[in-house]
Amino acid sequence: MSIAVSTTSGPRAPWVAAPTRARVAFLLIILAAAVVGALATQPDISARAVADSGAELTRLLRAMAAIKVLMAAGAAAAVLWRLAAPVSLAGFAAYAVAGAAMAAGPGLIWGMAHVAAGAALLHAGLLATVVLLWRDPAVGQRLASLVAARRARRIA
Questions:
Q1: CA distances (Å), origin 56, targets 59, 68, 106, 112, 115
Q2: CB-side exposure of 107: number of CA atoms within 13 Å?
Q3: Where are the strands (E) in 11-95, listed by range?
Q4: DSSP 4
Q5: For residue 66, what are the contacts with CB-CB under 8 A and spacing of at least 6?
Q6: Which of 29, 92, 128, 154, by CA, is between 20 and 30 Å from 79?
Q7: What is the pTM of this model?
Q8: What is d(CA 8, CA 21) in angstroms, rounded to the nearest whole number?
Q9: What is the tally of helices (H) and strands (E) in the chain?
């Protein structure tokens, strides 16, 4: 028995978010998750973790956290592109949970006390986002229309 989550509008999707509202809500959710991730570690615990780790490892992990912010931003941009089309409540919730996980991860890594949890959240969120985008029929439709428009411009 498989469970399918529809991310497009239709007779089984009673609640469909308008593109602008969905995009704003998604941005607010990932911003809130990033703030929570950054503030999750108390300053004294973070300072102790930095002291225990040493300066070189701290610089390395914080540089990796900065790179992970860029990875999460790229995935969030892809979701925002997807949200230009209507999305069901279940689809939006899936994108929001994945986005929140990947947004909270780098902040946890930066605090140095919860590096493993931050990495797990970020990578789980990125993987979930990729799978959601890959399995979303609306993404295929939008990509097909972009390819058709580009081919039409080449021919003309």
A1: 5, 18, 18, 12, 15
A2: 19
A3: 16-17, 87-88
A4: -
A5: 106
A6: 154
A7: 0.83
A8: 15
A9: 6, 2
